[in-house]
Amino acid sequence: ILNVEQSPQSLHVQEGDSTNFTCSFPSSNFYALHWYRWETAKSPEALFVMTLNGDEKKKGRISATLNTKEGYSYLYIKGSQPEDSATYLCAFHWTGNQFYFGTGTSLTVIP
Amino acid sequence: EADIYQTPRYLVIGTGKKITLECSQTMGHDKMYWYQQDPGMELHLIHYSYGVNSTEKGDLSSESTVSRIRTEHFPLTLESARPSHTSQYLCASSDPYSLTDTQYFGPGTRLTVL
């Protein structure tokens, strides 16, 4: 089982604050890095998939960067809103075809 | 939008009972997966399938079994439930021909065995 680490484990921010989380993964046998957003009682929802070193993806106020050489990805949320409250999961997709998930970062945005 | 369904959403059952957790998808995806998640822990792959009549065990050992008789259906069965099986079970599917092989998840079944 490969080790994927996410930090911080949980985060409370005020509405309007910007925030970021980290996903660390093995730097060898990389195929892709996936970010998911998981709201309570709902299905995890795919946010981004990143495949190339230096990739940057953006969807509204959320963006992500990827460094495959050093094995990390950052997820940024600009101007957090209460509806951004969720657990953000990253998954390392290695060349052996399986996904390895981190434990997630639980974000609470306080109005 | 992903169309993948799991039933039941919540199940509380006594030790020794046989249970089947249902998972269905309407996207025609060949690949399907079952993950188990204990509180505060990662999702761990317990079973996967590449298509009809294909099933494989994942990295995390599990006493459950799966079957894949139809593309859209991937049920998970526990012959004799025990308290150690208490966990959340998530089903997912993906299109192996897509570039990214993104997995689409169901809402999960939260199982409690008393």
Can you tell me about this structure?
With 111 residues, chain A is mainly beta. Chain A has no helices and 11 strands. Chain A has strands at residues 5-7, 10-14, 19-24, 30-38, 45-50, 56-59, 62-67, 72-77, 86-94, 99-101, 105-110. In chain A, strands 2, 4, 5, 9, 10 and 11 form a 6-stranded mixed beta sheet that branches. In chain A, strand 4 (30-38) and strand 5 form a beta hairpin. With 114 residues, chain B is mainly beta. Chain B has strands spanning 4-7, 10-13, 19-25, 31-37, 44-49, 56-57, 65-66, 76-78, 87-94, 104-105, 109-113. In chain B, a hairpin with a 6-residue loop joins strand 5 and strand 6. Classes of the chains: A mainly beta (111), B mainly beta (114).
Give me a quick take on this structure.
Chain A is mostly beta strands and 111 residues long. Helix content of chain A is 0%, strand content 57%. In chain A, a hairpin with a 4-residue loop joins strand 7 and strand 8.
The largest contact between protein chains, plus residue counts on each side, is: A-B, 23 and 24 residues
* Class from helix and strand fractions of chain A: mainly beta
Can you tell me the residue ranges of chain B where pLDDT is under 50 for at least 5 consecutive residues? none
Encode the helix/strand succession of chain B as letters: EEEEEEEEEEE
Structural class of chain B: mainly beta
Q: Quick one: biggest sheet of chain A?
A: 6 strands, mixed
Give me the Rg of chain B, rounded: 13 Å
Question: Helical region count of chain A?
Answer: 0
- Shape annotation of chain B: globular
Separation, N- and C-terminal Cα atoms of chain A: 39 Å
Overall pLDDT level of chain B: 93
How many E-type strands of chain A? Answer: 11
The helix content of chain B is under 10%
SSE sequence of chain A, one letter per element: EEEEEEEEEEE
| Beta-strand content of chain B | 35-45%
- Report Rg of chain A: 13 Å
Q: Bin the helical content of chain A.
A: under 10%
What global shape of chain A is seen?
globular
Chain oligomer state = heterodimer
Number of helices of chain B: 0
Low-confidence stretches of chain A: none
